[in-house]
Structure formats: C-alpha cells, structure tokens
Write a structure and sequence with these properties.
With 189 residues, this protein is of the alpha/beta class. It contains 2 helices and 6 strands. The relative contact order is 0.17.
Length: 189
C-alpha cells in the first residue's frame, strides 16, 4: 500500500486500518505505557506505547515496538530514548479495538472498551480512537528494534483438520462394524 498523509484518512479510520500513513509532530516521552505479556523470539517483554501530538493538534498513541523485560519481575525494562523534538513518522493506522491483547499496568483487561479508552480514562486525557504501529521516522532512533508484526494471512491447516475428522469418523464406523460383528458371532454360538 502507498503511504498517505494521516490527515487524508482520519475522517473514517475504520475504512483505512492497516493503511501506511505519515504524520509530523512530536512525542511525549513522559507519557508512555508498557503493554505487558508480549513475546519476541520466545523472550518476555512489553509493547511500548508513547503519546504523539501532530502539528495539526490531534493526539494519539504510537506503538513504538517491543522491548525486553527487566532482569527480574521488579526490575524496570530499559526503555529506548524517544526524541521529543519535531519529527515525521510513518506507521500503520490501527483501531483502538485492535490493540495487541494484554493489559496495561494497573488497568484491568476486560472486553468492555478498548485499552486506549481505558488509559485515557485513568489519566484524564483524550486521544483519538486509533493508534499507529511505528514503522520508521525522520530520526534514525525512531526505527523500532522489534517492530509490531503484521498478522500472518494464510489458508491455515483447514485441509489437515478436515482429513483428521474424516479419519475419526471412519474409525467410528469401523469400530461399530467390529462391535456388531462380535455381537452377531456371539449370538450364533
């Protein structure tokens, strides 16, 4: 997909999910959230969300990628430095409801509203109802070491499961045949 300006798709974001967009503005490194229960190559860590304000004044969250957890459960993870000056970023537009599952620190995870809405309610702030998966930025330090992954689109193992269930059904029919044969042969004796 071609990268477009964020301002051209914010009218109806539900129609533009996954659209690569670019926007100019600044991060607020003092307003970050660690989304727990995320793994990368079998290593436990967090998704790092940072609040971003565009030059047009809209405020939203940016998923800055995965970071490794601290050495122990009480050790704070090493959070990469996020520039607070004016930058241009490119990211994939995502809906609040599609935020990676898990829970924020001190915010319960239930099926009610999206996690961004919960974070806004807790902090008393207001942001847009979407977020961006950061791809890159005008500052080289913005490229995530482990970016948010695209979902894998495939036909899945449907044929294998179908064959498995057909095999199970055939075993049931064959088992019934054996039981009936044994019942009939025992009556003849």
């Amino acid at each position: 997909m071609k990268t477009v300006s964020l301002s051209t798709v914010t009218g109806d974001v539900t129609q533009h999910e996954w659209q690569p967009v670019s926007v100019e503005g600044s991060f607020n490194p003092q307003s970050q959230i660690l989304l727990r229960n995320h793994y990368s190559d079998g290593v436990y860590g967090f998704e790092l969300l940072t609040r971003f304000t565009s030059t047009s004044g809209s405020t939203f969250w940016v998923d800055c990628g995965w970071i490794k957890a601290g050495a122990s459960a009480t050790a704070r993870p090493e959070i990469p430095a996020i520039p607070d000056n004016q930058v241009t970023i490119t990211g994939r537009l995502r809906l609040d409801s599609s935020l990676p599952q898990g829970s924020f620190f001190a915010i319960p995870n239930n099926a009610g509203s999206g996690l961004i809405a919960k974070a806004n309610a807790q902090s008393g702030t207001t942001t847009e109802n979407f977020y961006l998966d950061l791809i890159n930025g005008s500052d080289a330090s913005l490229a995530p070491a482990v970016p948010a992954e695209l979902p894998e689109l495939s036909d899945g193992p449907h044929m294998a499961y179908a064959l498995q269930w057909i095999f199970f059904a055939a075993l049931i029919v064959y088992g019934r045949f054996l039981i009936r044969r044994d019942v009939l042969s025992s009556k003849e004796l």
